[in-house]
Description:
The complex is a heterodimer. Chain A is of the alpha/beta class. Chain A folds into 2 domains: 7-259, 2-Layer Sandwich (Aconitase, domain 3); 269-415, Aconitase, domain 3. Helices cover 31% and strands 19% of the residues of chain A. Chain A has helices spanning 5-14, 38-47, 72-88, 100-106, 138-147, 172-183, 198-202, 205-213, 229-238, 296-299, 302-312, 330-338, 341-347, 398-407; strands spanning 23-27, 30-34, 59-62, 91-93, 115-119, 132-135, 149-153, 157-163, 192-196, 222-224, 256-261, 268-270, 278-280, 291-295, 322-326, 350-352, 373-376, 392-395. Chain A is globular and about 60 Å long. The model of chain A has no long low-confidence stretch (mean pLDDT 97). By secondary structure, chain B is of the alpha/beta class. Chain B has an 8-stranded mixed β-sheet. The two termini of chain B are 22 Å apart. The mean pLDDT of chain B is 92. At the A-B interface, helix 2, helix 3, helix 5 and strand 7 of A face helix 2, helix 4, helix 5 and helix 7 of B.
Amino acid sequence: MGKTIAEKILSDKSKQDAKAGDIVIADLDFVMGQDGTSPLAIRVFEEMKANRVFDPNRVAMVIDHSAPSPVEGVSALHKQMRDFAQKQKIHFYDIGDGVCHQLLPEKGHVLPGQLVIGADSHTCTYGAINVFSTGVGSTDLAAGMISGKLWFKVPETIRLVLNGKLAGGVFSKDLIIFLAGQITADGATYMAIEFAGEVIDALSVDARFTISNMAVELGAKCGLMEADQKTESWVKQHSIQSYQPVLADQDANYNYVKEYNLSDLEPQVALPHTVDNVTPISKVTGTKVDQGVIGTCTNGRLEDLRIAAEILKGKKIAANTRLIVAPSSRATFIAAMREGLIEALVEAGAAVVTPGCGPCVGTHNGVPADGENVISTANRNFKGRMGNNKASIFLASPATVAVSMLYGSITDPREIIG
Amino acid sequence: MELKGKAHKFGNDVNTDYIISGRYKFKTLDMRELAKHLMEDLDPDFFARINKGDFIVAGKNFGCGSSREQAPLAIINADISAVIAKSFARIFYRNAINTGLPLIECDTDLIDPGDQLEVNLSQGLLYNKSKDLRIPVTPLPAVMLKILADGGLVEHFKKYGNFNFD
Lengths: 418, 166
């Protein structure tokens, strides 16, 4: 019997013949924490009586959730991170550097075939470049920083074969929102997902990150893709290290395999207050929106900003609305400036905030008022997620958000593009 | 480990934003303070009604969403002795075991709000005293029982300096 990508990577990293259901202790290639989880991990690190991280070159901390600090309490936690990073000589990314899930691949810290943990649930993002990466909490982060190891239950795998060709105006975000509706928020709990098929092959690496990023919204441990030519050339632009990509065996054992034909998929929207509360856009067009958000670890990449800027260039967002844009990293921000995308977005009425998580986690940067509707490219629309439990969050692609901002209501992007 | 207390019931898909909202959790590491806001967006008076040792009882996918370890820590610091649910989201599951919060997977339709429950973790027993009903429980894997028995992963590391499941 062959193996899935998850079984192969965990076998390799635990130096044993690992099959779904086994519990293994495996070697970690990289370990990451952000400012919502690192301060607690630092405390646990000290409680565990550790002195040194296992390998400073394999550990990073990123300040992205509250960047820059909105209140004194956060400032004190950020200072703890800076002090720890300096003392331990680990990689450190401060305010303005970007969202952790953009930075780790962009800085070449994570490579195909590797095993990576991050104390952030969206760590599954790097599955798009064939990394077994998964979110953990602060205690796991501390244990990983100390030992360079972690225990894993080898997950079963669901293989989703996505065939057909996405229509104009339909993007990878629509695809993963659609799948969240199909599979539901806990449909893949404790499991890995392998994404494959013609649609994945046709997508850019940027667009693929959006899909793997949201694997956790289906409950999955990771959202893996095989490495192809596009992956290889993307990775080579960001790292000079050698690596060994991992393919699934033809006769691997899956929990199930499901094929979709997505040629007729229309733009999708996740309605308040769960990510799996999904509808085709035609059912909700005309719903009033007060605020738009383009950014986050799901959709703040250069390709996303290009799509939004192309729609908004030379136009103005609707009266009585706000649009917040958060580029995913400093490099994305600079590239977007050089291409004139930031100018187009700001002229259209957007407020650009520091590269980072922006308003997605409800700490600052655009908390909505009671009764307001937000349309966002983020990955979560839980009640209170953006800091107000009396506001409603709709999730959609950057194109849908941009077009909706022109009209002040949810609008099918195919009216303008496609 | 014998646990006794009253059931407080919640629905399916209770996410970590509901358990402890992001607007509090990024501000402090004082878990007693965070505990006061436990489940606030679902039930504003919840914390005030907890008696030491009570249980949170929920449907499927408890703890979905962000990886914040403040979620199990806020539950522990609110004096909840264990969470009983049909299923748990996997990061929450890890975090709970690592921080020493016992989790029990079973059919929670057999428990009503206010029921008096008794749990024996090592034997994997759940007794609904109010209904005089023994409820079958999915046993925890040995690795997790070992971490819980050590009092969480911090104590495990203090004891062994690394992972040790031999």
